[in-house]
Batch of 3 targets.
Target 1
Amino acid sequence: MKKRGKRTSILLASACLLIIAIAGIWMERDWMDKGTLDSPGIYNGHGGTFKNTLAEMDTPDPSVIYQDGYYYMTFTHNGADVMVMKSRTLDFRQAQSKTVWNPPIDTAYSANLWAPEIQYIQGKWYIYFAADDGLNENHRMYVLEADTDDPMGDYTFKGQVKDETNKWAIDGLAMEHEGKLYFVWSGWEGDVNVQQNTYIAPMSDPLTISGPRVLLNEPTLDWEQAGGPPYIDEGQSILKKAGRLFIVYSGAGSWTPFYSLGMLALDPGTDPLVAANWKKSEQPLLQMDEQAGVFGPGHNSFVTSPDGTEDWIVYHATTSSSDGWNNRRARAQRVSWNEAGMPEFGKPLSLATAIAVPTGAGVIKSEYAKKAGERVEFDGIPATLAAEVPLLIHYRNTSGGSLPVDLLVNGDKMAAPVELAPTKVEQTGYVYTQAALQQSDNNVISLPAAIAGLETTAIEIPRYEAESAEFKGSTEMEENLFASGLGVVKLAPSGEAGGTGNAGKVKSTSTVQFTNIAVPEKRDYTLRIAASNAGKQTARLKVVIDGEKTMTVEVAKTKRNQFVPVDVTVSLKAGVHMIHMETVSDQVSMDYIDIIG
């Protein structure tokens, strides 16, 4: 539990009134109109940002799927087994993980397990993977079927997935299109490692290829042949939008920085088993960007945002042109669509880029929660430290009066009931409270499932980690074992308005900027800034909201690695906001900000 420090509370009386309080100075300039949503009045989660990579460990060949409130990812795990990770968000750095299958020894599929693909097909979970007996020329495709409806549970080995040629095959996955099932993979034409091609074949069920393979694509373009021979066409993935069907694949040597993504587009309304119906893009859709420090972006999968309105690409890449097959970690960015209905991936984003989270992220819906008697349990909530976090409850209360409900965290009842004010029939109410989490990747928050007139629809943890925000100037991020997330942000003093340091020299401003901060209602909110000041005197921190409202708050002296809350109260409109922070005097380390009602 983090100690509470000196609390600074600043109350905004009106849009034109200046109030000077002990904790800070507010300057009002009709700033509230800056907070907006694409659809006014629609709240879809507290937002925030994240940064690549998606995991701290190597995660080559990532396969990601979103199902029933969770993201699941599998990847090439040292070629030894099949591991699945489970996360409430697309950021897997605090995810649960489990090895769901180990191969038996001395079989045709005991070694070099590559590129597992996790898929939910016809009501069941499957994992397709390539493996061999220790010799690459014996790589073939195999499939696991889940024993239960839990993708983190046990799986049964169902055998090889093969066509009549039984040639070398890797990177296979099932494709559903217009009520039919197909298998798409990378394979050799013969028995010599000259080049890899894209093949497709019909399936009678998720375990069985039921017809001859069809050659869809060969690596004939200059960019596809970079680093070869052998020439590469692999890592196939499926993308769908508005009735259109695309196969995105990886070309060029996977061991080179030239590894890139190409695409095949199926002509609308045509047969995917006819090669001429597919149109190939001449240029790669995603390739290395030396300026961004991204090399060899490839072997991707696609996944939607939690609300289903956005498409995201997840791919691996390295940070050096000489990394080869090392340091390949999963990254993500949003897919955009042009007027012609074609996907655009843009340039790969640098590790320093703060990326707005997928829409609906962080909203843990009760429809995907566990029912335990008369209560509903929201599980899978991670915390790197035992600490209090903000909790936002979504609910409907049509009882006509306020209802007190007991909040349980990991089975322990919080000190006081949470009061839920009455709402209209179709109106969602929002109430903020606190929850004491344990250091765990699976905290459980429990609320009543059924009280007359009451429906709990979702919960959120509206915390924004500083290391996931945007940095400018001399701002530095460092790992810190005492932090709420994975690290803290160190803000160097920029001096007064003139931007000079103690030596009188002009310094570059050191700032951290929190973007995509969403609130559900127009009301007063408390911004809780967790900061540490190990200097010899009180530090001053400038906070600017939406580019127009400015305050200067004080951060008292603390012990090293002691992060104390500095609270300020401000009126915000419903919508999306931006919070900019910089130190005026003395260095401050920042852990996070919370939004509390």
Target 2
Amino acid sequence: MVSRMVGVGLALATALGVCGPAWAQGGGAPPASPVVQAPVVQADAPGRWIRGESEHFIVYSDRSEALIRRYVTMLEDFDAVLRTLHGKTDVETPRKLPLYLLSDTRQLRRVIPNADERLQGIYLTGVEDIFVLAIRNDDNLGDRTNGDDTVLHEYTHHFMMQYFPDAYPGWLVEGLAEYYKTIDLQMKRVRIGDFSRGRASSLLNDKWLPMSDILSKRASQFDRDDALTFYAQSWLLTHYIWSDKERRKKLQDYLELVRDHQDPIASWTKLYGQDSATLEKTLRGYMKSLPVLTIGREPPKPQIAFSRLPAGADDLILEVQRLKGGVAKAEAPALLAQFQQIAAKRPNEYYSRLALARAEIDLGDRAKGEAILTTLLDERPDDLETLQVMAYSRLEAARRLARTPADRDKAKAVYAEAATYLGRAHKLDGDNYLTLYGYAETKSLDREPSQNTLNVVFRAASIAPQNPAIRVNAARLFIRAKQYEIARELLEPVAGNPHGGAQARRAGQLLTTLEGKADGEALKPATAAAASGEGDKDAPGG
């Protein structure tokens, strides 16, 4: 990172030293409270769902520890291969990736109601959670390799964004995930570079897209059938590049040209000497004899800690994940009623009451939800999730007040309340991205963010770089501070994300605004207001 962020560790510690009473600065110190003995709370009765936690993953399933063990071992094995190949064996893992093992489409639709029956897995990157849903029937029919192709594809995206966040063309983003997903994790060796039946069939039987389109477009720009062909050709092109050191060495120069807005096919021709037709001919010949990389090794034996979730999770664990992704307004009343009915079955269970509080805050009556949370925090003052849910409810209330200029003083007071809850959460987990990001938002009404606030939001974006909203809103704070170079570094991966949607468009617009601007240079007032998120309901304080 640029030199301005070299002191992040020290400054971050300074910022989070404010996590205690000083987090509420501006709102006044909280009054002294008498020492009260916390009530004795019974543990929730266990249910079917099991949680298995390893070094890099947290896997949930309602089936068996044996299934979780096999799955976690596969994931840790794959992660170790990626780290070895990309020189990341000694780097930190700032956040473990949660993964929910599902039995069928019926369970998947508890999270994504309109999920296609053909969907076997999905990677979701909301602000509240970044996680994977995977249907695992364990029969391996049609799978030539040992490994869950869909999940390994998505985990490649997750890994690359965590350790190599940058702007990449769509063909490389998808091609690399396709390349690694067919890895064959055998007992004594790993084979990389095999083909999947679906992609091979597409390449052999379908009409190819022009390579100029592959190099310049994203999967979302094609209809469904052509998108499948795009994935297949992207896999083959990536395989062609990755299998040869000289071709791979030239790739960095190619990416620099494309990031500099040079024509993709002209840049390819300049570096590789192939126009669109020649590249297609080369790839058709290449796929007749695909090289496969074989690596001998001892498979990992991960340590896995198992625990059983409360009985309420049997009915609500997937519905809570649905809440985190947002619920359409028309679907909200029915889903809220479902939470209320299910929670009533276990009126004293902590898990069910917390789930109901979430639902009331998101879909129903915020005051009712916060009243439940207040009771829960009286019972368990140090429950991290409950503290975060309360803090984010207060943040949303403050955000709504801040949209009306006359209510901004009220908003500051509510932001201070949120900061108090976040301070308590930070004492429990000092490196949680939700806590750090929320803290930065409590400072969003400051005319210019302090370096401490910038350090905190930068750390949040570093822990959860996969979430585009966090990166975009972090960039907006750096724009407000006239630190444009860091803002660009935060925005470029979002703008280049082939699945980035509205946030990718926002990032692209902000990058256009920053073109030619040096750190410290003032933007025009209207431009600065728009770039920092004023008037944007999705931006903190907007």
Target 3
Amino acid sequence: MASHATAVLERLARSALLPVCVLSGVVVVSGFFFPAIVGSVVSGRGWLVLSLLFFGTGLAYLALLPVKRPDADDSQPGAPYLLRVRHLSWRNWVGGFLARQDPVTFGVPVAVLGGFFAARLLAPARTGAAVTAAQRVLFRQFDWLFLGAMFLAVVYALFLLVGPWGSITLGGPDAEPDYTYPTYFAMVFTAGIAAGIVFWGPAESLFHYGAPPPGSGAAPRSAAAAVVALTYASFHWGVSAWCAYLVVGLPIAYYTHQHGAPLRVSTILTPFLGVDRLDGPLAKFVDVLAIFATIGGIATSVAFVGQQFLAGITFQWGVAVGGSGALLFVAGLVVIYSVSAESGVQRGIRRIAGVNLVLFVLFALLLLVVGPRGFVLDAGAAALGRYATDFVSMSFVTSGPWAANWTVWNWSWWFSWAPFAGLFLAALSKGRRVRTVVFTGVVATSAASVCWHLLFGGTTLALQRSGRADVLAAVEAAGGSEAVAGFPVLAALPLSRLLLFVFLALIVVFIVTSADTSTLVVSILATRQGVAPTTGSVVFWGVLQGLVAGAVLLVGGGESLQVAAVLTGGPFAVLSVVALVGLTLAFRRHERDRSTLVGRVRAAIGRVGGPPGDD
């Protein structure tokens, strides 16, 4: 009955969303490409509302389209079961929601977030000072922890690619993947990167160009500084970064699909606690920490990305939307990603990830066609070469404040996002070989990230050096905000209006693909073990993320909350090492007599080149 009522409501919603999307899209597209005709009619807040209506109704309509093929069997409560949201009747909506929540993993993160904002409101200076002091101690006194854990993750990933354990099929030798490989890659990449890649794509290399790292030997704003800048941007978003997700996600995937452990972050402790003891205090502490890190990280990202989107609205139409515009944007995002998360992986999350990847590739191709290809290719090649030759030395740089503010900060940020991104990677990886998971989660994703930074960052530096755009001056005029960096770059290129349109679409779609995934993951972690989340759970956590983002904009403390969330990267850096030790013990115990990739290649060559055997 509940499913039938839901289907009726979704059908009515689709019939309303489509015409709104078409009508608002006509106005928005006309405003972009014919601003002289439409621009004088619509106000600044009107452009924001229309843009949200266009992007939001389009994505929501896509999420609510029915699934063409039937869902997989739900008789066995595993990852596929937990990824499908349960639709309860309206009478059981509140009761079913409360009955399914774990009192610890649900209550503690909510209380901690409430306490943080209460402290921020009552004693803002002390709260900010306490968070800053904790950051200084962790990043400068324990920088070796982040650098060592990340390098270990890279070495372990490389071993899995070529070693004997890469041939393990998650779920058993007969298990089949639930998603095609392009869909698998799209969901892994877009969930784990968020809008940070859009936010920092034109900005990070620009900052390193203006102030090169100590010891690089490059003068500020020089040709050598451009190569160094692209090298470090690639380093911070490349192989090392994505390994943080892998070393949390792969152990969860192995224990969940191979040994029937629950789909939770605390599952990384399975070799030490056993499957039956993953409901104890230590396991719950890990899950609580994961929820806080996820909510804090995503909510602050939503707030900061909202500022970037509003900067684009102001840049395009020369109008200000005011403080209420940011809240309106956050509210619109909450509706979009909550609808996507509620529709489940098979519908909204999968489809919007596909749209995201298409827009990502389209924007990159447009930028390559109209941008300064010569500089991008030359500087990019030099940066890749330096990235390869200096990788080990960059991995262990501890040059005081710069390393703490950039490399160590980035590593802690990636580790703090590893719980939700790693859990999602684990949930999607049933039927995949370990080698495929490593290749997708590290090699393919980091290749996409590095290419983006070389292309967008290289274009930014080329325009800055040639004088076609003074991006550094634009950032300085905006109070040092990196949110504005991309817009003067796009304005200086041919097809600037098309580029800006796709760029703004990417901002929305990238944050939606991370926020819908994080909402679903947190709903799973806050629900009792083995019980799938309901619509009420998804709506609650989606709205909570929006409320936190709104509180950041109203009360302030966005940077403090972001730092507090990022500081959870410290415990997860330690847990990543523990997870790798446990995974190694489990592999040695259960996965003996497996050949390496090199051994399989040699065997294949021997079969081809050797003498024919007797039949």
